[in-house]
Q: What sequence folds into this?
């Protein structure tokens, strides 16, 4: 037996998926998260795995970096930059989130201005040193930082260091020697790209996270060893790849959306089994909902993520939008007497009122339970019994404030939560010019299938896919992800002064760095390399990414490169300008080590109609229905069809089928929910 374990540490539950390479068997389970000590939740969950000695690899997705940034619980940071540029993190950009809101203020950076320092040094726009680094002044700054007991990390970002990193590298040597107990981040290693503010913001974020991530990951490895779990363990990156604990400690900003990437990767994989290539994913857990898209069979990636509006983190990552809408989202009354839901969450502790752990405020989970959409005796397969009386008491308090019946209030809570998620879906589809009618909604997370039927109706999406193991789906994605490394760098040149040797050297350096990281992870075979350039017409403010072949930068092929850019610009913007100067700005190399993805086994064909295991009273948007059929998902077979209204229960999730909707079970046991009967 050889077992690969995927672990997703969420805000409410920690999910586990075990895949046996020999038998192809998949085992899934959950363990309540321990927010104060996430490693404890991992260790408790691993105790449930019967063959711990057979574990060959562990892949972990964690929210430690995400939560530290969103909750602003990272380390106190000092910032050192070129003289005259101390205020770049505070000036930010000239744009505004709210053009007509005179009370709006810019977001606060992750560093205090009085902890920002300037030093004499200067590199020009061609990478030439105009003024050497004043090492004496830097040592004085280091001494001043050392006298501040709150500072635990230092971020260094010098002007044009992405072209010549000598000053930043020397600064790190000095700071490490003078301040051995402080973490140091330099922009050349974090984000060697142009645009001073974005580079500074990303580097500060990396330093802000280093002490937090270092403490937890170092403890994680030691505690795994102490528990007798000696298998190699890696952390999932925001781009869906993996990195060693040591690499994660050195570059924690790459863990920013570590957990949610697994669900997108798994959704792309299982949808491809059914021939679905246009997908919008919805991962609804206990605390938040993440949405993303799969276009033409490929995940969407971005480097323009913002932790808050105006605070960019420019690292390669799966393009995921997150909102505060989960099963634990709390219902509350605003100052105007209107019902609101979220973004505050009850989390794992105390959790929704129905969990019986001390929570008393009404949540989305309480509303679903009160309306019969959840079975109190079959939550998590019966491992955790819910308290309907506590859920009713919590919602009655909200209902009394609104002057509404309790069942109507519960449905209002669900509909408001749904409306919040519709807004997120619109942001990744309609706002990008994508037609929802061309997509399938892949709903997962413990709460996603509960809401999928209403969401596809609201959005005009024709169908939803509920995969196997939706409650542990991100962890499922971790066992099928391919190791991936992204390398970026800015080196500007134009078609009028193009130097094939210089630009080829830049690209091949990135490829070599990526190879080194994959080798560190133990991957030496089946490595695929993808190269791309970010280009623009000279004077434009935004670049267009253009994939290129291995030999595209050679002197005898470069004319084809310029022609390709003209055609790409025409396709994207509707015009091209032959004869205009073309500028190459950024270089990107993406390396993946192809591994065989686990294939889910086929399920047996149906030999008759699906038989419900029980019936009960259930609330739907159109009203309460008595005698609604409840099916056990484990008993459904390929070819089974179910007409709504109905409920399909499984250990870690529930799928609601509204009246007028229809479900069919595909070859792999996945639920295909059609928006209307056919």
A:
């Amino acid at each position: 037996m050889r077992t690969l374990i995927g672990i997703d540490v969420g805000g409410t539950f920690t999910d586990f998926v075990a895949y046996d390479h020999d038998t192809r068997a998949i085992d899934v389970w959950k363990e309540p998260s321990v927010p104060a000590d996430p490693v404890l939740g991992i260790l408790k969950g691993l105790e449930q795995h019967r063959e711990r000695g057979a574990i060959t690899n562990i892949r972990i997705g964690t929210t430690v970096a995400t939560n530290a940034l969103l909750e602003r619980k990272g380390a106190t940071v000092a910032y050192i930059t070129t003289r005259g540029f101390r205020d770049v993190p505070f000036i930010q950009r000239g744009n505004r989130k709210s053009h007509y809101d005179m009370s709006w203020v810019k977001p606060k950076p992750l560093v205090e201005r009085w902890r920002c320092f300037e030093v004499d040094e200067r590199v020009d726009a061609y990478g030439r040193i105009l003024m050497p680094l004043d090492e004496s002044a830097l040592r004085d700054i280091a001494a001043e930082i050392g006298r501040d007991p709150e500072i635990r990390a230092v971020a260094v970002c010098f002007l044009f260091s992405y072209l010549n990193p000598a000053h930043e590298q020397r600064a790190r040597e000095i700071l490490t020697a003078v301040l051995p107990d402080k973490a140091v981040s330099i922009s050349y290693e974090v984000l060697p790209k142009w645009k001073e503010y974005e580079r500074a913001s990303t580097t500060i974020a990396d330093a802000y996270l280093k002490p937090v991530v270092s403490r937890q990951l170092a403890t994680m490895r030691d505690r795994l060893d102490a528990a007798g779990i000696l298998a190699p363990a890696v952390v999932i990156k925001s781009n869906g790849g993996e990195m060693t604990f040591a690499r994660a400690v050195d570059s924690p900003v790459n863990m920013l959306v570590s957990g949610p990437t697994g669900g997108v990767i798994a959704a792309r994989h299982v949808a491809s089994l059914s021939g679905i290539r246009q997908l919008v994913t919805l991962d609804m857990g206990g605390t938040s909902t993440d949405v993303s898209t799969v276009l033409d069979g490929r995940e969407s990636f971005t480097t323009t993520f913002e932790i808050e509006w105006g605070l960019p983190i420019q690292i390669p990552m799966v393009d995921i939008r997150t909102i505060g809408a989960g099963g634990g989202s709390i219902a509350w009354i605003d100052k105007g007497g209107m019902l609101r839901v979220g973004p505050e969450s009850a989390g794992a502790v105390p959790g929704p009122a129905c969990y019986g752990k001390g929570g008393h405020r009404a949540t989305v989970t309480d509303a679903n339970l009160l309306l019969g959409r959840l079975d109190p005796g079959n939550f998590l397969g019966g491992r955790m019994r819910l308290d309907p009386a506590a859920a009713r008491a919590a919602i009655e308090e909200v209902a009394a404030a609104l002057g509404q019946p309790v069942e109507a209030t519960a449905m209002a809570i669900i509909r408001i939560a749904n409306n919040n998620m519709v807004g997120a879906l619109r942001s990744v589809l309609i706002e990008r010019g994508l037609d929802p009618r061309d997509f399938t909604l892949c709903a997962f997370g413990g709460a996603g299938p509960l809401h999928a039927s209403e969401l596809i109706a609201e959005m005009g999406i024709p169908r939803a896919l509920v995969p196997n193991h939706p409650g542990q789906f991100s962890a499922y994605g971790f066992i099928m992800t391919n190791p991936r490394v992204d390398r970026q760098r800015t080196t500007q040149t134009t078609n009028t002064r193009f130097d094939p040797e210089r630009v080829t050297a830049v690209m091949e350096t990135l490829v070599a760095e990526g190879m080194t990281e994959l080798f560190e992870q133990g991957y030496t075979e089946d490595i695929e390399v993808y190269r791309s350039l970010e280009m623009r017409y000279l004077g434009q403010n935004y670049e267009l990414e253009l994939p290129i072949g291995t030999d595209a930068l050679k002197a005898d092929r470069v004319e084809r490169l310029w022609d390709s850019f003209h055609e790409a610009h025409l396709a994207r913007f509707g015009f091209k300008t032959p004869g205009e100067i073309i500028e190459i700005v950024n270089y990107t190399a993406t390396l993946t080590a192809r591994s065989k993805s686990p294939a889910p086994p086929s399920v047996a064909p149906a030999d008759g109609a699906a038989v419900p295991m029980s019936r009960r009273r259930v609330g739907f948007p159109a009203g309460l229905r008595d005698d609604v059929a409840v099916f056990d998902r484990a008993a459904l077979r390929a070819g089974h069809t179910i007409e709504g209204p109905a409920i399909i229960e499984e250990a870690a999730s529930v799928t609601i089928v509204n009246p007028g909707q229809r479900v069919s079970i595909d070859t792999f046991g996945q639920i295909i929910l059609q928006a209307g009967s056919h």
